[in-house]
Amino acid sequence: MSHELTYLEAIREALVEEMRRDDKVFVLGEDVGAYGGAFGATKGLYDEFGEYRCLDTPISESCIIGVSVGAALRGYRPVAEMQFGDFITCGFDQIVNQAATLRYRYGGRAACPLVVRAPVGGNVAGGLYHSQNPESWFVHRPGLKVVAPGTAWDAKGLLKAAIRDDNPVIYLEHKYLYRRAKGPVPEGDEIVPIGKAAIRREGRNATLVTYGAMVMPALEAADRMAGEGVETEGIDLRSLAPWDKEAVFASLDKTNRVVVVHEDVKTLGMGAEISAAIMEERFDKLDAPVMRVTYPDAHCPFSSVLEQHNLPNADKITEALRRLVAY
Questions:
Q1: Helix H segments across the chain?
Q2: Measured over all CA atoms, what is the biggest interatomic distance in the chain, rounded to whole angstroms?
Q3: In a 3-state reduction of DSSP, which class is residue 130?
Q4: How far, rounded to the nearest angstrom, does the alpha carbon of residue 284 sit from its chain's CA centroid?
Q5: What's residue 212's pLDDT?
Q6: Strand 77-81 to strand 258-265: parallel, antiparallel, or no bridges (unpaired)?
Q7: Candidate list 130, 140, 299, 309, residue with the active-site label
Q8: Are 213 and 240 a contacting pair, CB within 8 Å?
Q9: 157: DSSP letter
Protein backbone atom coordinates (compact mmCIF):
# COMPACT_ATOMS: atom_id res chain seq x y z
CA MET A 1 0.00 0.00 0.00
CA SER A 2 1.17 3.52 -0.75
CA HIS A 3 -0.14 7.06 -0.67
CA GLU A 4 0.81 10.29 -2.41
CA LEU A 5 3.11 12.67 -0.57
CA THR A 6 5.46 15.47 -1.45
CA TYR A 7 9.16 14.98 -0.84
CA LEU A 8 8.91 17.23 2.25
CA GLU A 9 5.90 15.35 3.63
CA ALA A 10 7.75 12.07 3.12
CA ILE A 11 10.64 13.35 5.24
CA ARG A 12 8.26 14.39 8.00
CA GLU A 13 6.44 11.03 7.87
CA ALA A 14 9.74 9.16 8.23
CA LEU A 15 10.65 11.25 11.28
CA VAL A 16 7.28 10.69 12.95
CA GLU A 17 7.30 6.94 12.33
CA GLU A 18 10.86 6.49 13.59
CA MET A 19 10.24 8.60 16.69
CA ARG A 20 7.14 6.52 17.49
CA ARG A 21 9.05 3.28 16.86
CA ASP A 22 12.10 4.11 19.00
CA ASP A 23 12.08 6.52 21.94
CA LYS A 24 15.84 6.97 21.55
CA VAL A 25 15.26 8.93 18.33
CA PHE A 26 15.05 12.70 18.75
CA VAL A 27 15.46 15.74 16.51
CA LEU A 28 17.38 18.94 17.19
CA GLY A 29 18.27 22.09 15.34
CA GLU A 30 17.40 25.73 14.86
CA ASP A 31 13.63 26.37 15.00
CA VAL A 32 12.75 22.67 14.70
CA GLY A 33 10.50 22.84 17.80
CA ALA A 34 7.19 24.71 17.99
CA TYR A 35 7.97 26.56 14.74
CA GLY A 36 8.35 23.27 12.85
CA GLY A 37 11.60 23.99 11.01
CA ALA A 38 12.51 26.57 8.38
CA PHE A 39 10.88 24.47 5.65
CA GLY A 40 8.29 22.69 7.81
CA ALA A 41 9.97 19.28 7.94
CA THR A 42 9.47 18.97 11.71
CA LYS A 43 6.01 20.53 11.86
CA GLY A 44 3.85 18.82 14.49
CA LEU A 45 6.70 16.87 16.10
CA TYR A 46 6.93 19.23 19.07
CA ASP A 47 3.23 18.76 19.84
CA GLU A 48 3.44 14.96 19.76
CA PHE A 49 6.87 14.32 21.26
CA GLY A 50 7.52 17.37 23.44
CA GLU A 51 10.50 19.58 24.11
CA TYR A 52 12.85 16.78 25.16
CA ARG A 53 12.63 14.97 21.82
CA CYS A 54 12.23 18.01 19.59
CA LEU A 55 14.96 20.38 20.71
CA ASP A 56 15.44 23.97 19.62
CA THR A 57 19.12 24.87 19.70
CA PRO A 58 21.19 28.04 19.57
CA ILE A 59 22.39 29.21 16.14
CA SER A 60 25.50 27.06 16.35
CA GLU A 61 25.97 24.13 13.97
CA SER A 62 29.09 23.10 15.88
CA CYS A 63 26.96 22.85 19.02
CA ILE A 64 24.23 20.90 17.23
CA ILE A 65 26.65 18.31 15.88
CA GLY A 66 28.69 18.16 19.10
CA VAL A 67 25.60 17.52 21.22
CA SER A 68 24.47 14.91 18.70
CA VAL A 69 27.78 13.04 18.80
CA GLY A 70 27.68 12.95 22.60
CA ALA A 71 24.08 11.73 22.61
CA ALA A 72 24.87 9.05 20.02
CA LEU A 73 27.68 7.77 22.24
CA ARG A 74 25.15 7.49 25.08
CA GLY A 75 22.86 5.28 23.00
CA TYR A 76 20.50 7.85 21.50
CA ARG A 77 19.77 8.31 17.80
CA PRO A 78 19.84 12.05 17.13
CA VAL A 79 18.61 13.55 13.86
CA ALA A 80 20.27 16.94 13.50
CA GLU A 81 18.86 19.52 11.11
CA MET A 82 21.09 22.06 9.40
CA GLN A 83 18.74 24.89 8.47
CA PHE A 84 20.62 25.17 5.17
CA GLY A 85 23.22 22.65 4.04
CA ASP A 86 25.68 25.46 3.42
CA PHE A 87 25.96 26.05 7.18
CA ILE A 88 27.17 22.50 7.77
CA THR A 89 30.70 23.88 7.41
CA CYS A 90 30.35 25.36 10.91
CA GLY A 91 29.96 21.80 12.23
CA PHE A 92 32.49 20.32 9.81
CA ASP A 93 35.14 19.52 12.42
CA GLN A 94 32.63 17.71 14.62
CA ILE A 95 31.51 15.61 11.65
CA VAL A 96 34.79 14.67 9.97
CA ASN A 97 37.14 14.57 12.99
CA GLN A 98 34.74 13.29 15.64
CA ALA A 99 31.67 11.47 14.27
CA ALA A 100 33.44 9.90 11.28
CA THR A 101 36.38 8.53 13.27
CA LEU A 102 34.71 7.27 16.47
CA ARG A 103 34.26 3.65 15.45
CA TYR A 104 37.90 3.41 14.26
CA ARG A 105 39.33 5.24 17.27
CA TYR A 106 37.58 2.92 19.69
CA GLY A 107 38.44 -0.27 17.83
CA GLY A 108 34.83 -0.93 16.92
CA ARG A 109 33.60 -0.63 20.52
CA ALA A 110 31.83 2.71 19.89
CA ALA A 111 29.04 3.50 17.46
CA CYS A 112 27.79 6.88 16.33
CA PRO A 113 24.20 6.51 15.08
CA LEU A 114 23.81 10.12 14.01
CA VAL A 115 21.89 11.56 11.05
CA VAL A 116 22.62 15.06 9.79
CA ARG A 117 19.80 16.35 7.58
CA ALA A 118 21.11 19.02 5.23
CA PRO A 119 18.85 20.95 2.79
CA VAL A 120 21.08 21.46 -0.24
CA GLY A 121 21.06 22.61 -3.84
CA GLY A 122 20.07 25.51 -5.99
CA ASN A 123 17.38 26.43 -8.53
CA VAL A 124 15.65 28.43 -5.81
CA ALA A 125 17.46 31.76 -6.42
CA GLY A 126 19.02 31.45 -2.97
CA GLY A 127 22.44 32.80 -3.86
CA LEU A 128 25.82 32.03 -2.41
CA TYR A 129 24.99 30.76 1.07
CA HIS A 130 21.78 28.85 0.38
CA SER A 131 22.49 26.85 -2.77
CA GLN A 132 25.63 24.75 -2.45
CA ASN A 133 25.98 21.02 -2.99
CA PRO A 134 28.51 19.78 -0.42
CA GLU A 135 28.42 16.02 -1.08
CA SER A 136 32.06 15.71 -2.15
CA TRP A 137 33.30 17.09 1.18
CA PHE A 138 31.74 14.11 2.96
CA VAL A 139 31.99 11.36 0.35
CA HIS A 140 35.75 11.96 0.55
CA ARG A 141 35.84 11.14 4.27
CA PRO A 142 36.02 7.49 5.46
CA GLY A 143 33.58 6.68 8.25
CA LEU A 144 30.64 8.62 6.85
CA LYS A 145 27.70 7.45 4.79
CA VAL A 146 26.09 9.92 2.39
CA VAL A 147 22.67 9.63 0.77
CA ALA A 148 20.82 11.93 -1.65
CA PRO A 149 17.20 10.95 -2.40
CA GLY A 150 15.60 12.13 -5.64
CA THR A 151 12.00 10.96 -5.09
CA ALA A 152 9.44 11.13 -2.29
CA TRP A 153 9.61 7.34 -1.91
CA ASP A 154 13.35 7.42 -1.37
CA ALA A 155 13.17 10.52 0.84
CA LYS A 156 11.19 8.48 3.35
CA GLY A 157 12.88 5.13 2.91
CA LEU A 158 16.43 6.42 3.01
CA LEU A 159 15.79 8.58 6.07
CA LYS A 160 14.40 5.59 7.95
CA ALA A 161 17.45 3.55 6.91
CA ALA A 162 19.78 6.37 7.98
CA ILE A 163 18.16 6.66 11.43
CA ARG A 164 18.54 2.92 12.02
CA ASP A 165 22.18 2.86 10.87
CA ASP A 166 24.85 2.68 13.58
CA ASN A 167 27.15 4.97 11.57
CA PRO A 168 26.94 8.73 10.99
CA VAL A 169 24.90 9.44 7.87
CA ILE A 170 24.81 12.73 5.95
CA TYR A 171 21.28 12.96 4.51
CA LEU A 172 21.25 15.46 1.64
CA GLU A 173 17.69 16.60 0.92
CA HIS A 174 17.23 18.89 -2.05
CA LYS A 175 15.25 22.08 -1.38
CA TYR A 176 14.01 22.31 -4.97
CA LEU A 177 12.25 18.95 -4.55
CA TYR A 178 10.46 19.75 -1.27
CA ARG A 179 7.13 20.66 -2.86
CA ARG A 180 7.84 19.88 -6.52
CA ALA A 181 8.57 16.16 -6.22
CA LYS A 182 5.38 14.29 -5.37
CA GLY A 183 4.69 10.61 -5.72
CA PRO A 184 3.79 7.33 -4.08
CA VAL A 185 5.28 6.63 -0.65
CA PRO A 186 4.92 3.31 1.20
CA GLU A 187 2.52 3.38 4.13
CA GLY A 188 4.22 0.51 5.89
CA ASP A 189 7.56 0.23 7.59
CA GLU A 190 9.58 -0.04 4.38
CA ILE A 191 13.15 1.21 4.16
CA VAL A 192 15.38 1.90 1.16
CA PRO A 193 18.74 0.21 1.80
CA ILE A 194 21.78 2.49 1.81
CA GLY A 195 24.20 1.68 -1.03
CA LYS A 196 21.67 0.44 -3.59
CA ALA A 197 20.97 2.38 -6.78
CA ALA A 198 17.65 2.35 -8.66
CA ILE A 199 17.25 1.80 -12.38
CA ARG A 200 14.75 4.51 -13.34
CA ARG A 201 14.76 3.70 -17.05
CA GLU A 202 15.98 0.74 -19.07
CA GLY A 203 18.21 1.33 -22.11
CA ARG A 204 20.88 -0.25 -24.31
CA ASN A 205 22.67 2.63 -26.08
CA ALA A 206 23.95 4.85 -23.25
CA THR A 207 23.92 5.14 -19.45
CA LEU A 208 23.01 8.20 -17.41
CA VAL A 209 24.21 8.16 -13.80
CA THR A 210 22.78 10.80 -11.49
CA TYR A 211 21.05 11.49 -8.15
CA GLY A 212 19.01 14.05 -6.22
CA ALA A 213 17.35 16.85 -8.14
CA MET A 214 19.12 15.87 -11.36
CA VAL A 215 17.05 12.70 -11.71
CA MET A 216 14.12 14.56 -13.28
CA PRO A 217 16.02 16.47 -16.02
CA ALA A 218 18.12 13.37 -16.74
CA LEU A 219 15.03 11.27 -17.37
CA GLU A 220 13.55 14.07 -19.48
CA ALA A 221 16.70 14.04 -21.62
CA ALA A 222 16.50 10.26 -21.92
CA ASP A 223 12.90 10.55 -23.16
CA ARG A 224 13.99 13.09 -25.78
CA MET A 225 16.77 10.80 -26.98
CA ALA A 226 14.30 7.95 -27.33
CA GLY A 227 12.59 10.07 -29.96
CA GLU A 228 15.89 10.08 -31.83
CA GLY A 229 16.25 6.32 -31.59
CA VAL A 230 18.66 6.27 -28.65
CA GLU A 231 17.58 4.22 -25.63
CA THR A 232 19.25 5.54 -22.48
CA GLU A 233 19.46 3.71 -19.18
CA GLY A 234 18.87 6.01 -16.22
CA ILE A 235 20.54 5.13 -12.91
CA ASP A 236 19.61 7.00 -9.75
CA LEU A 237 22.47 6.37 -7.33
CA ARG A 238 20.47 7.40 -4.22
CA SER A 239 23.54 6.64 -2.07
CA LEU A 240 26.85 8.38 -2.72
CA ALA A 241 28.92 6.74 0.02
CA PRO A 242 28.89 3.89 -0.56
CA TRP A 243 27.81 4.20 -4.21
CA ASP A 244 26.49 1.23 -6.16
CA LYS A 245 29.46 0.42 -8.39
CA GLU A 246 27.94 -2.92 -9.33
CA ALA A 247 24.83 -1.30 -10.84
CA VAL A 248 26.85 1.27 -12.79
CA PHE A 249 29.27 -1.33 -14.14
CA ALA A 250 26.44 -3.68 -15.12
CA SER A 251 24.83 -0.90 -17.13
CA LEU A 252 28.15 0.09 -18.71
CA ASP A 253 28.73 -3.52 -19.76
CA LYS A 254 25.44 -3.28 -21.64
CA THR A 255 25.66 0.21 -23.17
CA ASN A 256 29.43 0.92 -23.35
CA ARG A 257 28.79 4.65 -22.88
CA VAL A 258 28.29 6.70 -19.69
CA VAL A 259 27.36 10.28 -18.81
CA VAL A 260 27.44 11.34 -15.15
CA VAL A 261 25.18 14.23 -14.18
CA HIS A 262 25.34 16.15 -10.91
CA GLU A 263 24.57 19.61 -9.58
CA ASP A 264 27.80 19.87 -7.59
CA VAL A 265 30.76 21.60 -9.27
CA LYS A 266 32.82 19.55 -11.70
CA THR A 267 36.26 19.32 -10.11
CA LEU A 268 36.59 16.27 -7.81
CA GLY A 269 32.84 15.71 -7.81
CA MET A 270 31.04 12.36 -7.94
CA GLY A 271 31.49 12.38 -11.72
CA ALA A 272 35.26 12.39 -11.32
CA GLU A 273 35.13 9.46 -8.89
CA ILE A 274 32.78 7.38 -11.03
CA SER A 275 34.79 8.14 -14.17
CA ALA A 276 38.05 7.12 -12.46
CA ALA A 277 36.52 3.87 -11.21
CA ILE A 278 35.35 3.02 -14.72
CA MET A 279 38.78 3.83 -16.16
CA GLU A 280 40.49 1.57 -13.62
CA GLU A 281 38.12 -1.39 -13.78
CA ARG A 282 36.12 -1.21 -17.02
CA PHE A 283 38.30 0.65 -19.54
CA ASP A 284 37.98 -2.15 -22.10
CA LYS A 285 34.18 -1.77 -22.07
CA LEU A 286 34.19 1.87 -23.17
CA ASP A 287 33.28 2.92 -26.70
CA ALA A 288 33.56 6.62 -25.78
CA PRO A 289 35.05 8.73 -22.98
CA VAL A 290 32.98 9.08 -19.83
CA MET A 291 31.34 12.51 -20.00
CA ARG A 292 30.16 14.80 -17.21
CA VAL A 293 27.35 17.35 -17.07
CA THR A 294 27.77 19.42 -13.92
CA TYR A 295 27.66 22.86 -12.41
CA PRO A 296 30.75 24.82 -13.51
CA ASP A 297 33.57 25.43 -11.05
CA ALA A 298 31.93 28.64 -9.91
CA HIS A 299 29.97 30.15 -7.04
CA CYS A 300 26.20 30.29 -7.21
CA PRO A 301 25.10 33.78 -8.27
CA PHE A 302 22.23 35.68 -6.67
CA SER A 303 20.81 36.37 -10.13
CA SER A 304 18.32 33.66 -11.06
CA VAL A 305 19.13 34.26 -14.74
CA LEU A 306 22.80 33.51 -14.15
CA GLU A 307 21.94 30.57 -11.92
CA GLN A 308 19.81 29.03 -14.66
CA HIS A 309 22.70 29.54 -17.06
CA ASN A 310 24.98 27.50 -14.77
CA LEU A 311 22.66 24.72 -13.66
CA PRO A 312 22.61 21.40 -15.51
CA ASN A 313 19.30 20.86 -17.29
CA ALA A 314 17.61 18.59 -19.80
CA ASP A 315 18.99 20.56 -22.76
CA LYS A 316 22.60 20.20 -21.60
CA ILE A 317 22.17 16.52 -20.77
CA THR A 318 20.54 15.84 -24.15
CA GLU A 319 23.42 17.51 -25.94
CA ALA A 320 25.95 15.44 -23.98
CA LEU A 321 24.10 12.25 -24.91
CA ARG A 322 24.16 13.24 -28.58
CA ARG A 323 27.93 13.80 -28.43
CA LEU A 324 28.39 10.55 -26.56
CA VAL A 325 26.56 8.33 -29.05
CA ALA A 326 28.16 10.14 -32.02
CA TYR A 327 31.70 9.63 -30.70
A1: 7-21, 45-49, 61-73, 92-93, 102-105, 135-139, 152-164, 215-226, 245-255, 270-281, 304-310, 314-326
A2: 60
A3: helix
A4: 31
A5: 98
A6: unpaired
A7: 130
A8: no
A9: H
Please state, in angstroms and as integers, the Cα–Cα distance from residue 325 to each residue in 41, 251, 291, following that order: 42, 15, 11
CA–CA separation, 109 and 73 (whole Å): 10
Amino acid type, 178: Y
**Environment class of residue 327 by beta-carbon count within 10 Å: exposed (0-12), middle (13-18) or buried (19+)?**
exposed
Please tell me the distance from the alpha carbon of residue 37 to that of residue 82, in angstroms, as a whole number: 10
- Whether the ω angle into residue 134 lies within 30 degrees of 0, i.e. cis, is no
Question: Considering the chain, what percentage of its residues have pLDDT values greater than 90?
Answer: 97
The Cα 152–Cα 236 span in angstroms is 13
User: Are the C-beta atoms of residues 82 and 134 closer than 8 Å to each other?
Assistant: no
pLDDT digits (tens, 9 = 90+) for 11-61: 999 999 999 999 999 999 999 999 999 999 999 999 999 999 999 999 999
pLDDT digits (tens, 9 = 90+) for 253-302: 999 999 999 999 999 999 999 999 999 999 999 999 999 999 999 999 99
273, burial (CB in 10 Å: exposed 0-12, middle 13-18, buried 19+): middle
- Does the pLDDT at position 187 exceed 90? no
Provide the residue type at 149 as one letter.
P
CA-CA-CA-CA dihedral for 216, 220, 221, 222, to nearest 10: 100
Which has the closest alpha carbon to 324: 233, 257, 252? 257
Share of the chain above pLDDT 70, in %: 100
| Cβ–Cβ < 8 Å for 136, 264 | yes
262 classed as catalytic: no
Q: Is 303 exposed, middle or buried (0-12, 13-18, 19+ CB in 10 A)?
A: exposed
